[in-house]
Structure formats: structure tokens, C-alpha cells
Design a protein that fits this description.
The structure holds two protein chains of two kinds. Chain A is 72% helix and 0% strand. The radius of gyration of chain A is 16 Å and the shape is elongated. Chain A starts with 8 loop residues before the first helix and ends in a 5-residue tail after the last helix. In chain A, 45% of the residues are buried. By secondary structure, chain B is mainly alpha-helical. Chain B is elongated and about 70 Å long. Classes of the chains: A mainly alpha, B mainly alpha. The interface between A and B is large, with 42 and 36 residues.
């Protein structure tokens, strides 16, 4: 069980970056309702409409954040509970912000 | 026994990939839950991790294929705009979104179901990839860390929940306003 000794920093990086990614999906979904102009900016491919940008941007940022956090944390042991707590906060916020009654409340 | 290309893609997106995802989830959930050193031998742990690796990566791969095919192949057919803004008396069967929105009794399928599905569905591949990566990175070490294993399990369940919401609404919406 050689991997048992691996520092938990890589886990913190992976979990937090995933949470950032899903939170951004929720955030952009809500912002696109709040700022109609943003919908046009998020339309990366017209047939799919703003959904193309609302998902491509968070996926891109998730991957960049993952690489960055991994480089910063992978070699060390961190307070994993603290990272996962923040990750769950972001995931729940992401879930709330993608719930139609919530983001439609911001629609203009 | 004929299917149009659109119907075939819809079946692939929702039924085939969805079933694979469900299958991989069931195996992965059992594997992750039981990944405890007090329950299995060292050899058993290694064998379980191998199966878990296959299951979680399959789940992640299927999740990506599902959301990408959904967003970039099926969804454009769903949201196609009718040639005229006036839809009264027009055959909207080729325009599922417009068809749903044309009647108050079906509009909520789009306003709630589709709007939720198209966004939350993307949670699944991100979270499933993270789970697969953590299984690959820590392997048997996951069994030794209860908190990490519980976190992975939690992400796994949320990934499945997101896919389930997307899958269930997809099935119902395709029943009410099929893509043909």
C-alpha cells in the first residue's frame, strides 16, 4: 500500500477545483439571467446558444484551477477537512444557482 | 424498425450512455463504500481498487460523452427556432422547445425541466472525473483515510444525483416533445 503515504494535498486540490467548476456553472447561469448581454457573450456556438459558454468557461477554469492548485498543494499534507468544507459550500451554491426558480428570480 | 439520425442520437445520449452511467455508478458506489481495510484483505483491496478504477473512469468517460453529445448534437435540435415567430396553428413537432412553450400546460417542462437539466447535467462529468482521478491517485490509500473516502463517496453521489435529474427530465421531455 505504497500510495497510503501520499500527501492529501492532491485530494484537496482536486476536490476544491471541481467545486469551483460546478459553482461557476451555477454562477454563470444566474448571471446570464441577471445580465442579458452576457448571454450573447457566452454564445460560443450559436446552435447551442449560451449553454455552450456557460459550460465551456467553467470547464476551462476548473482545469486551470486544478493544475494550479495541484502544483501548490500536491506535495504537502493540508487540513483536508477545511478544503472539503469550502468545496461543499461551493457545490451547494452551484446546485442552488442552477435551480430554475432561483436563477429565474434574477431574470430581466 | 426505423430510427432517424436524430432519434438515434437521442437514444444514444439518453438511454445507452445513461444506462452505462447507472451501471458504472452502482458498481462504483458499492466498491467505494466497502473500501475499508477492516473489511477486506490487502489482496482483496488491490482487486477492489482495480475494479473501482475501471468503474469510475467508465463513469467519467460516459458522463463526458453524454453531456457533450447532449449539448452539441441533441440540444441544438431541441432549441431550433421555428421559421415564423407566430406559432399558432403551426406544426411545431420539429421544434420541441417551441412546442413545449406554445401551451401553458407543457411550458413548465421547458422552463423548469429543461432549464435545470441542461445546466446541472454538466456537474456529473466534472465530479465523476474528480472521483476517478482520486481513486487512481490514492488507490489503496483511500481505504486508510476515512475522511477522504467519504468525500469521494459524497462527490460520487452528487455526480449521480446531477445525472439522474438530467436523465429523468430528459426522458420525460422527450416523451412530451420528442426530437424526430
Amino acid at each position: 500500500m505504497t500510495s497510503k503515504a501520499r500527501p492529501n494535498g492532491a485530494a484537496a486540490a482536486a476536490v476544491l477545483s471541481a467545486a469551483i467548476g460546478v459553482f461557476l456553472i451555477g454562477l454563470l447561469t444566474t448571471l446570464a439571467e441577471l445580465l442579458p448581454g452576457l448571454k450573447g457573450g457566452l454564445t460560443f456556438w450559436a446552435p447551442a446558444g449560451p449553454l455552450s459558454g456557460k459550460t465551456a468557461v467553467p470547464v476551462g477554469i476548473w482545469l486551470v484551477a486544478w493544475v494550479g492548485l495541484h502544483r501548490a498543494l500536491a506535495a504537502s499534507d493540508v487540513n483536508l477537512a477545511r478544503y472539503t468544507r469550502w468545496a461543499w459550500v461551493l457545490i451547494v451554491l452551484g446546485l442552488v444557482l442552477t435551480f430554475p426558480p432561483v436563477f429565474e428570480a434574477f431574470a430581466r | 424498425m426505423q430510427l432517424s439520425a436524430r432519434e438515434l442520437w437521442t437514444v444514444l445520449h439518453g438511454l445507452v450512455f445513461g444506462s452505462l452511467f447507472l451501471l458504472a455508478f452502482a458498481g462504483g458506489l458499492a466498491g467505494l463504500y466497502s473500501l475499508r481495510p477492516e473489511w477486506v484483505t490487502v489482496e482483496g483491496l488491490r482487486e477492489r481498487v482495480r475494479r473501482l478504477l475501471a468503474g469510475t473512469w467508465l463513469m467519467a468517460l460516459v458522463a463526458w460523452v453524454t453531456v457533450i453529445s447532449g449539448t452539441y448534437i441533441v440540444y441544438p435540435w431541441y432549441r431550433a427556432t421555428p421559421p415564423t415567430p407566430e406559432t399558432a396553428g403551426v406544426d411545431l413537432s420539429a421544434y420541441p422547445r417551441a412546442l413545449l412553450l406554445s401551451r401553458p400546460e407543457t411550458a413548465l417542462w421547458h422552463r423548469f425541466g429543461m432549464e435545470w437539466k441542461e445546466h446541472i447535467g454538466w456537474f456529473a462529468p466534472i465530479l465523476a472525473t474528480t472521483v476517478a482521478y482520486l481513486v487512481a491517485y490514492y488507490r489503496e490509500g483511500l481505504a486508510a483515510s476515512g475522511s477522504l473516502r467519504r468525500t469521494v463517496l459524497g462527490l460520487f453521489v452528487v455526480a449521480f444525483g446531477a445525472a439522474a435529474v438530467a436523465g429523468v427530465f430528459g426522458a420525460f421531455i422527450n416523451k412530451v416533445a420528442p426530437i424526430r
